[in-house]
Amino acid sequence: MGDLLKRYGSGLTGAIVLLTLFWLLILLILPNLTMFESSFRPYLPLAEVGGPKDTYSVNNYLRVLGNPVDLNILWVTVEVPVRIKVFLLTIFYSAVVTAITFLMAYPLAYYLAKIVSPKSLPTLFLLLFVPLWVSEILRSFAWFIILSFKGPLNALLMQLGIIDVEIRWIAGFSPVIIGLVYTYVLFMVFPLYNSMQSLDSNQIEAAEDLGAPWWRTHWRIILPHAKPGIASGAVMVFMLSAGSLLVPSLLGSTTSGWFTQTIQGVMLEEQDWNTGAAFAFMLLIVCTLFVSLAMRVFGVKLSDIAK
What we know:
By secondary structure, the chain is mainly alpha-helical. The chain has 15 helices and two strands.
C-alpha cells in the first residue's frame, strides 16, 4: 500500500483499492455466497418461497446420486450415479487437457524465451494472438467442420491414401480434448514464457559447459525455475476446461457429457436453479481443491501464481 501511495498518490490509490474491493465483493464474493445459500434451499413456486416448505437441507446435493450406471476404471467396472460419472470424467479429462497443453506449451515457451531472436518476438507473439481475435464459438465451429464425417480432415486422409473410409471423429471425448487444448493452450504458454524469461541464461550455458545433457539441464535448472509459471498455467487451463460449456456442447457427442452441460440442463431445462447452484458449487469446490493441490505440488504460493 505504501508503494502505491508513493507512486500514484492518495486519489488514484483510493480509486484502485475501491475498484478492487468492488470486483471482489460484487463480482466474486456476493454471487458465490448467493449460490451457496440457494444450493441448500428447495426449488419452489414463487408463492411458496419463504413458507413452511422453504427450509434448508442437503437434498439438492443428494440429487447428484441418482440413476446408477457403469464406469470403467482401469479394466474394473463399478456402478456409480450418472451425474457422478459425468463429474469424474469432466475432472479427469480437464486434467488430461492440462497435461497435454503443458507438453505442447513447454518447448514453445522455451523457444520464445531463450532461443528466438528478440527482433522476431513481436511477430511471433502476433501470430500466437491471432486465434484469440476470433470468438471461442467460431473456433469451436471450425473444429466441428474439420472433424465432421464429410469434413476436410477425412477428405485429406482419403486423398493421401491413409484411410479407405471416413472416420467418425466426433465421438467420445477426443474432439472435446482437441477443442479445449486448442482454445486454452496459450494460457499455458505465456505463464511459462514469463517464468523462463527471468532465468539467467548463464546458468544454462554453465550446465552445458559442464557436460550436462539437454534433458538434465531442463530437469535440474529450467523446470524448477519455471514452477510458478507451470502452476499458474495448470490452474488456469484446468479451471477453464472444467468450466467450459461451448466446446463440449459443440464438439461433444452423446457419450461425452461435460458437467457444465449437466448444470445447464438442470438450470435451463428443468428450471431448478437451486439444484443447479448445488452442482455448480460442487464444481467450484473441486476446482479450488485443484488450485490448492497444484500449489502444494509445485511448492508455490498464491502470490507466485499471481505474478
